[in-house]
From TrEMBL:
It comes from Alkalicoccus halolimnae. InterPro entries: FAD/NAD-bd_sf, GMC_OxRdtase_N, GMC_OxRtase_C. The keyword Oxidoreductase applies. Residues 216-330 form the Glucose-methanol-choline oxidoreductase N-terminal domain. This is GMC family oxidoreductase. Belongs to the GMC oxidoreductase family. It holds the Pfam family GMC_oxred_C. Residues 428-543 form the Glucose-methanol-choline oxidoreductase C-terminal domain. The keyword Glycoprotein does not apply. GO terms for molecular function: flavin adenine dinucleotide binding; oxidoreductase activity, acting on CH-OH group of donors.
Length: 582
């Protein structure tokens, strides 16, 4: 039996960065918000003295329980998709705060080129430059429109960084100075300058100094302990939703957080969302929460899955290319090259999640693609995140992976190697998409999400181009051997690559090829807003999607307030093909 609860103004599904930002912004305006999170409630106390690599980094304490819910994967539609039974390529977070608790803290802005990628590509190179199966499209808003929301996110999170002429232009400086410059970062920057590149410190949510944000929340200075990615920060020195936006929402008195509340379906009457059905995972009771506005702010995959299961929006069909839900799933082309040094030693075991430097000379359209067989590019970076001992045993090429030789070489080169990373853009293909699996279900009997994805010719060309640069760079640094990876084959669901999954419920100004407008309001359901990485029509060439998700969440909160103020009247900017009215 389902228990119907008292109606609320707004219900948020998933309380991580996006859900936390929207809850904070709405409650500050006096709007009553209920936040539903399927995981447990967490606080700083849960992470105190918990620098346990085995528990968090190897056994995935903060991640989704794949025995209860996972997704299925295949490379193409001719294959049968099988369930992902272990965390590998990406890490699906759970609990209050979501992936914002276990992230590294990298905080790049996307380039102006990203938001108008199709228009700018056609203007510079012509239509024929776009491959036949590539489906790049403009976002329906420009970088200039996004800039104030990026600024708001950075001030809330206290981001530490420094300007660079090839990154996105800024109206204001970073709220806090860049993190410390270690000898390894100096070595990277000096080599980059010698090669004619433009290096800069990575923008970071591991703060260089204590900072109090505009909402009155204090974030402490980073201790450089190396326990960032896959861990919660027990120093409160990594900006996350638990110490910023969620406390802000709670302090208004207008926010009710309900952990252990797993939303199974959004109720939809064909025009509007009337509320959500969820299970209390502790008692197994089902509830229906009516709401004036429903805001879906779960992880990328879960946003798409919940819409498909709720039958809201038309599912994407790769054969006809009709439908929009599941369209433009994109990932990231992440590669690494490692230099081994016979004599030189480095202190690489100390660091922080986003401590490092990068250059953007081969990112976006910062370089001429006229004679290249790919578009976009990616940042090349060095990260001094700190190497924890269980998962890090680098050895030179040709070394056996077991026995005495492996032990000797891994001990020697633990402090005598230097790894560069390339985070390449992922551009959409008509054949990469998300839908519901026809065979496999979760613990409640609901269909799992199915991911159909493979690297494209574009991905391979981009990756090989960047690998050449990284190989040359490491030899320029003085490496004796360099381990590279060219022609990296098909995409695999393991090992870990990046948790930067995007697309499926994409933003745009044309309802035929997008699911939400520039305020993240669904074209097909006027009181439903869908916010997260699911909105990206492609993924940029940066290691980090969080600031863009945060910026979109701030913009969406404005749209929700406008919608409520107008009592369901026409929203400010609905797009050319369809106007939304109650």
């Amino acid at each position: 039996m389902t228990t119907e609860l008292e109606r609320v103004e707004a219900v948020v599904i998933g309380v991580g960065w996006a859900g936390g930002i929207i809850a904070a912004e709405l409650t500050k305006e006096g709007i009553q918000v209920v936040g539903l999170e399927r995981g447990q409630e967490k606080s700083l106390d849960d992470f105190t003295m918990q620098k346990d690599e085995l528990k968090y980094a190897i056994r995935y304490e903060l991640m989704q329980d794949l025995s209860k819910e996972t997704l299925t994967f295949r490379n193409n539609s001719e294959q049968r998709a099988l369930p992902m039974r272990q965390h590998g390529s990406f890490l699906l977070g759970t609990d209050v705060g979501g992936a914002g608790v276990h992230w590294n803290g990298q905080c790049p802005r996307f380039l102006p080129y990203d938001f108008e990628i199709r228009s700018q590509t056609v203007e510079r190179y012509g239509e024929d430059k776009i491959p036949e199966d590539m489906r790049i499209q403009d976002w329906g808003l420009s970088y200039d429109e996004m800039e104030p929301y990026y600024d708001k996110f950075e001030k809330m999170a206290g981001v530490s960084g420094e300007d660079n002429e090839l990154t996105a232009p800024r109206e204001n400086p970073y709220p806090t100075p860049p993190m410390m410059e270690t000898p390894l970062i100096t070595k990277f920057k000096d080599t980059a300058r010698n090669m004619g590149f433009h290096p800069y410190h990575l923008p970071s949510a591991n703060l260089s100094e204590q900072y109090t944000n505009p909402d009155g929340q204090t974030i402490n200075a980073c201790q450089y302990c190396s326990f960032c990615e896959r861990f919660g920060c027990d120093y409160a020195a990594k900006s996350d939703p638990l110490i910023t936006v969620i406390p802000t929402a709670k302090e208004t008195g207008n926010f009710e957080l309900r952990p252990n509340s797993n939303v199974r379906r959004i109720d939809y009457d064909g025009e509007r969302a009337t509320g959500v059905y969820y299970i209390d995972t502790l008692t197994q009771e089902e509830f229906f929460q009516p709401a004036d506005v429903v805001i879906l702010t779960a992880y990328t995959m879960n946003n798409t899955r919940l819409l498909l299961h709720s039958e809201i929006g038309e599912p994407y069909d790769p054969e006809t290319e009709e439908g929009v839900i599941g369209r433009n799933y994109c990932y990231q082309v992440g590669l690494a090259a490692t230099g081994f040094f016979e004599e030189e030693k480095f202190n690489i075991f100390a660091g922080a999640g986003a401590l490092g430097a990068a250059f953007d000379d081969y990112n976006g359209d910062n370089f001429d693609h006229e004679n290249l067989d790919f578009l976009h590019g990616g940042m090349i970076l060095f990260m001094q995140s700190g190497l924890r001992p269980i998962a890090n045993n680098p050895v030179p090429p040709g070394t056996k992976t077991w026995g005495r030789e492996f032990k000797q070489q891994s001990t020697k080169f633990f402090t005598q190697h230097y790894t560069l990373i390339m985070e390449g853009a992922s551009l959409p293909s008509r054949n990469n998409y998300l839908d519901l699996d026809p065979t496999y279900t979760d613990e409640f009997g609901d269909p799992l999400l199915r991911m159909t994805y493979n690297f494209t010719d574009q991905d391979h060309s981009l990756g090989n181009h960047q690998m050449e640069i990284m190989e040359e760079f490491l030899y320029e640094m003085g490496a004796d051997y360099v381990e590279t990876l060219y022609d990296f084959g098909d995409y695999t669901i393991v090992p870990y690559q990046a948790t930067h999954n995007t697309g499926g419920v994409i933003i745009g100004d044309d309802p035929e090829i997008s699911a939400v407008n520039s305020y993240l309001q669904m074209w097909d359901c006027e009181n439903l807003f869908v916010v997260g990485g699911s909105a990206f029509p492609h993924n940029s060439g940066y290691s980090g999607v969080t600031p863009t998700i945060g910026a979109l969440a701030y913009r969406a909160s404005e749209g929700i307030k406008l919608y409520l103020e107008n009592e369901g009247g026409e929203l400010v900017k609905a797009g050319p093909e369809k106007k939304m009215k109650s």
